[in-house]
Amino acid sequence: MENVNAHGAAPLVLPLSSKVSRKERAAVLLALGGTSTIAGRALDVDPSTVRRWRQTPGFRATVTDLRLRLIGTDPVNAVAALTAPEKGGER
Question: How many domains does the chain have?
């Protein structure tokens, strides 16, 4: 597990296996909404390295694929489901 401290916030513990490459772990962090700076700090890589990885088509495709797997293949309905009021709790 790795600790991340972004902008003085409380440390964030990330369960990222060291058996996965730093580049692959960076893709996961970015797919989850992290920034290059946060990913770089979490993985002990210079953030400029993560920004350089983001410029490559293969890496961008990996991040996009991970994001789609996280939210499903229909992002519009995924957002609608998140913003819809809960059923059964309204009176």
Answer: 1
